[in-house]
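Q: Convert this sequence to structure tokens.
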Amino acid sequence: LMSAARTEGRAWERLRDLTDLFGNRLSGSPQLESALRWAADEMKKDGLENVRLEPVMVPRWVRGDESLELVEPDGGRLVVLGLGGSVGTPAEGVTGELVVVKSFDELEARAAEVKGRIVLYNVPFTKYGETVRYRGAGASRAAKLGAVAALLRSVGLPGLRTPHTGALTYRDDVARTPSAPIPFEDADRLQRLVDRKLKVVLRLHMGAQTLP
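A:
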């Protein structure tokens, strides 16, 4: 097996076809269904026995259209990519003044500033296990204090203004608010504006929804 992996390209070709032909394959999506049928057909062509598809019921989260705009100062569009499982915004989006924090401790210390605002967790990446908790719990921690949305610096290494997404977990005892990562570059830009004591207002639109 190891020798074949080093000398043959079939595994790489299969991966190429899976990603190029079908794109992202979220649970319950048409792309995933097509990819599963393709995989079953390829396995049958390979001569495998007892290949079959089985029905599985899963919730289906749909990303929808997304945008993030720097309203004040008038700075145009920023890059955003909603977290898996996030709720969407109203059709008109949510608009709020920005509060930037670098830890949950700072969020709690500035609790009086959070109500009605958008929180940005501009948390420097250390280790994945340490930093990813802001992605999972950040929305509910901010919502508990009255925030209308939560943004976070992408968890990972710099990526040429590419946001790195993932999933969040909502608390049952707190209102669900939209949450999304933004790239390193945009997080640092917003940090610089806030550090200069400028009023920063953002408008976030997310068309996310979870279907049965």
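Helices lie at 2-7, 10-22, 30-45, 104-109, 128-131, 133-144, 184-195.
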